[in-house]
C-alpha cells in the first residue's frame, strides 16, 4: 500500500499511513474510475453488509484528478488505535483526554498554501463531490469542518455541517444541531453582518471526535480539546479570512462567509436517521478563496445510516454521558449508544446498583445531558452493553413494565428525528430500568465459567472444528 507524503501525524494522511502500516487489511484502494453518483456510497454499504468497515481510497472519481477518501471513521478498532487504546476503552479514553485541554501551536506556513484559487476562478464543481442517495437534492460535501469565531467573545469552534453544492462558489448549509455555529451566526446576523467562516476538508479522525464535544466551558477552543486528544498542541495556521486559524495538516481550505439574512432551499439529504431529511436551517455559504495541497485528497463522509456517519456520534455521546454520570454515580460501569439506533436515540447504561432509584437517576442525568437521546435503558453490570442480545435478554427477564418503564412527555427532541413534533420538535422520552431488584433474591443467572470455556475450545480444536 502506498505511503502518503508530507504526512504530519496530526493529519488525515498521517492517519492513512498509520492504517496502511499497522492495519493493512483495513485500507481498500480502488484504482479504477468510479462514478461520483452513488458508487462510493454503495461500495461502503456493501462492505458494511458483509461486516467490514475498511477505509476506502478511490483513485479516480469521474476523472476529476483528485483521489477520494471515505469510510475513515467507520471502525472502532481504528478510532481506538488513534488514542492508543483497546476498542472497549474508547469512550473512557475519549472522555478523559477531551477534558485535558492543550493550548494550540500556530505555524507560519501550511501545505494547503501550495495552490491558491481566488475570486471568479473558484469552482467547487471541480471537486469530486459525490451524490450519495437518489433523494439527495445535489452532491454534498459531507466532511466539511466549518470553523468560525464567536462575534462576541472571539472564541472559535469547528464542526461538521452538511454542504449542498449549489454552484461554483455557493453552498447550502444546515446548522440544525443548533450548537455553537448556529449561535455564532445568529449573533453575527444580530449585528448586521454575515459570519466569516472556513470549510476545512481532510483532517485526522481525532479532529472529528473532538469537534463533536459540546459540554465544555465557553472560553475553551475546540482546537484545544483536539490537542488534548492528540496529547500535544494541535498545529494550526492562519488562513486568509479574518484571523481564522485552521489545522495545518488539512487537505483543502475553502474561505468565505455564511451570509446574513439569506435563506434558500437546502435538501433533501439522506441523513443519519436512515431517512431523507427535509428539515434545514437553509443557510448559504459563499466561497471567496480555495487553498489546497498540490496532491490534495478529497475526504467525504458516507452519509445515511453508514457507520462512517454515525460511529463518531456513538463514541462521543458515550463519552459525554459517562462524563455526566460519573460525577454523581461512580458505580456506572459502561455506556453504549448503538449504531443501530442511529448513534443517537438510545443509550444503554450498565451499573453496579447499590440502591433502588439509582437507575432512575442515571436516566434523568442522561436525558439532561444529551438532547438527541430519547430512550435510556439501564442494566446491571453482568450485562454486556455492547451485545444487544444480552441487553434484550435483560429487558425480557428483569423488567416489570408497570413500574420499570417511565415517560417524560413534552421533552425537547432532535429536529432531524422524524418522530419529533413537526412544529416544535418535542417528543416523549422514556426510561427503562432493566436492573434486578436489590435487597432480595432474584432468579440466578446461568453461566459457563471461563475454565469450562477454555476446555470447550480445546476440545473443539482437537476435533478440528473452528469457531468461525
Ligand atoms: C458526519 C456528521 C455530519 C454532521 N452534519 C451536521 C449538519 O449538517 N448540521 C449540523 O447542525 N450539525 C451536523 N453535525 C453535528 C455537528 O457537527 C455537531 O453538533 C457539532 O458539535 C457542532 O459544532 P458547533 O458547536 O461548532 O456548531 C454532523 C455531525 C457529523 C458527525
Model description:
- The chain is globular, with a radius of gyration of 23 Å.
- α4 packs across α8 and α8 (307-328) crosses α9.
- It has 468 residues and is of the alpha+beta class.
- The mean pLDDT is 96.
- Strands 5, 6, 7, 8, 9, 10, 11, 14 and 17 form a 9-stranded antiparallel β-sheet that branches. A 5-stranded mixed β-sheet has the order 19-20-21-23-22, with helices on both faces.
- The longest helix has 22 residues, at 307-328.
- The chain folds into 2 domains: 12-307, Electron Transport, Fmn-binding Protein, Chain A (Pnp Oxidase, Chain A), CATH 2.30.110.10; 329-434, UbiD C-terminal domain-like (3-Layer(aba) Sandwich), CATH 3.40.1670.
- The two termini are 28 Å apart.
- β2 and β3 (68-70) form a beta hairpin.
- It is 27% helix and 25% strand.
- The protein has helices spanning 12-22, 39-49, 76-82, 90-97, 180-190, 205-211, 222-230, 307-328, 358-369, 388-398, 401-404, 450-462, and strands spanning 27-34, 55-61, 68-70, 105-107, 115-118, 140-141, 144-149, 156-160, 163-165, 170-173, 195-201, 235-238, 245-247, 252-258, 269-270, 276-277, 283-292, 298-299, 332-336, 346-351, 375-380, 405-412, 426-434.
Which CATH first-tier class of the largest domain would you pick? Answer: Mainly Beta
Query: How confident is the prediction overall: mean pLDDT?
Result: 96
CATH H-level superfamily of the largest domain = Electron Transport, Fmn-binding Protein, Chain A
CATH topology of the largest domain: Pnp Oxidase, Chain A
Beta strand count: 23
What are the low-pLDDT stretches, counting only 5+ consecutive residues below 50? Answer: none
Question: How many distinct helices?
Answer: 12
Amino acid at each position: 500500500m502506498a505511503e502518503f507524503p508530507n504526512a504530519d501525524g496530526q493529519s488525515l494522511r498521517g492517519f492513512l499511513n498509520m492504517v496502511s502500516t499497522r492495519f493493512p487489511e483495513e485500507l481498500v484502494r480502488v484504482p479504477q474510475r468510479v462514478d461520483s453518483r452513488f458508487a462510493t456510497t454503495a461500495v461502503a454499504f456493501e462492505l458494511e453488509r458483509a461486516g467490514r468497515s475498511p477505509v476506502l481510497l478511490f483513485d479516480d472519481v469521474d476523472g476529476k484528478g483528485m483521489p477520494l477518501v471515505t469510510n475513515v471513521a467507520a471502525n472502532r478498532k481504528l478510532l481506538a488505535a488513534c488514542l492508543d487504546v483497546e476498542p472497549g476503552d474508547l469512550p473512557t479514553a475519549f472522555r478523559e483526554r477531551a477534558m485535558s485541554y492543550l493550548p494550540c501551536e500556530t505555524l507560519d506556513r501550511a501545505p494547503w498554501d501550495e495552490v491558491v484559487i481566488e475570486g471568479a476562478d473558484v469552482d467547487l464543481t471541480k471537486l469530486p463531490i459525490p451524490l450519495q442517495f437518489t433523494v439527495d437534492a445535489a452532491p454534498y460535501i459531507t466532511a466539511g469542518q466549518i470553523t468560525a469565531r464567536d462575534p462576541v467573545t472571539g472564541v472559535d469552534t469547528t464542526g461538521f455541517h452538511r454542504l449542498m453544492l449549489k454552484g461554483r462558489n455557493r453552498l447550502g448549509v444546515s446548522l440544525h444541531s443548533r450548537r455553537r455555529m448556529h449561535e455564532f451566526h445568529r449573533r453575527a446576523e444580530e449585528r448586521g453582518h454575515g459570519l466569516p467562516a472556513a470549510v476545512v476538508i481532510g483532517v485526522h479522525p481525532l479532529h472529528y471526535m473532538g469537534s463533536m464535544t459540546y459540554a465544555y466551558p465557553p472560553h475553551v477552543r475546540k482546537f484545544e480539546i483536539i490537542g488534548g486528544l492528540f496529547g500535544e498542541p494541535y498545529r494550526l495556521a492562519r488562513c486568509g479570512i479574518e484571523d481564522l486559524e485552521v489545522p495545518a495538516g488539512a487537505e483543502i481550505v475553502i474561505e468565505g462567509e455564511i451570509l446574513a439574512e439569506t435563506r434558500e432551499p437546502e435538501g433533501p439529504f439522506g441523513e443519519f436517521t436512515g431517512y431523507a431529511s427535509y428539515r434545514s436551517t437553509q443557510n448559504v455559504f459563499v466561497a471567496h478563496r480555495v487553498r489546497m495541497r498540490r496532491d490534495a485528497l478529497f475526504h467525504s463522509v458516507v452519509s445515511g445510516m453508514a457507520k462512517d456517519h454515525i460511529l463518531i456520534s456513538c463514541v462521543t455521546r458515550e463519552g459525554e454521558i459517562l462524563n455526566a454520570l460519573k460525577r454523581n454515580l461512580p458505580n456506572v460501569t459502561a455506556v453504549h449508544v448503538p449504531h443501530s439506533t442511529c448513534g443517537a436515540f438510545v443509550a444503554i447504561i450498565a451499573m453496579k446498583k447499590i440502591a433502588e432509584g439509582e437507575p432512575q437517576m442515571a436516566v434523568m442525568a442522561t436525558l439532561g445531558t444529551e438532547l438527541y437521546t430519547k430512550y435510556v435503558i439501564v442494566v446491571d453490570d453482568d450485562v454486556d452493553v455492547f451485545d444487544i442480545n444480552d441487553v434484550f435478554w435483560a429487558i425480557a427477564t428483569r423488567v416489570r413494565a408497570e413500574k420499570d418503564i417511565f415517560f417524560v412527555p413534552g421533552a425537547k427532541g432532535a429536529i432531524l428525528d422524524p418522530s419529533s413534533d413537526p412544529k416544535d420538535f418535542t417528543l416523549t422520552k422514556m426510561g427503562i430500568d432493566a436492573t434486578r431488584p436489590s435487597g432480595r433474591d432474584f432468579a440466578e443467572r446461568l453461566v459457563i465459567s471461563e475454565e469450562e470455556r477454555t476446555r470447550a475450545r480445546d476440545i473443539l480444536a482437537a476435533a478440528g472444528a473452528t469457531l468461525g
